Amino acid sequence: MDEDGVLTVRAEDRASGQRGEVTIRASDTGRLPPAEIERMQRDGELHRERDAARRQSLAARNALETLAHAAKRKGSKGAAAVLDWIDAHPDATAAAYEAKKGEL
Fold this sequence. Notes:
There is one protein chain. The protein has 104 residues and is α+β, with helices and mostly antiparallel strands. It has a domain at 32-103: Substrate Binding Domain Of Dnak, Chain:A, Domain 2 (Up-down Bundle). It contains three helices and two strands; from the N terminus they run ββααα. It has a two-stranded antiparallel sheet with strand order 1-2. Strand 1 and strand 2 form a beta hairpin. Helix 1 packs antiparallel against helix 2 and helix 1 packs parallel to helix 3 (94-100). It is rod-shaped, with a radius of gyration of 30 Å.
């Protein structure tokens, strides 16, 4: 390997006289091609809004679930129904979870 990070390997088959050579550049290994990087960036942009909505939904679900468990400990009759609804609707929107708070 030389000072530029280039490794050149040469081989020769003595019986047949066939020769081969391979050059490996350290700068080329382990990196994604520019086209792949651009594709990944485009995918990230496409999913940004969906990911933000999912984060909001999960935060609303966690808040409702915490509230429902607290209400259940205090003897609220509607808490069990809300907890059952949460389990039955894991992909509900943040607005749907917020609306369910009124039942507690």
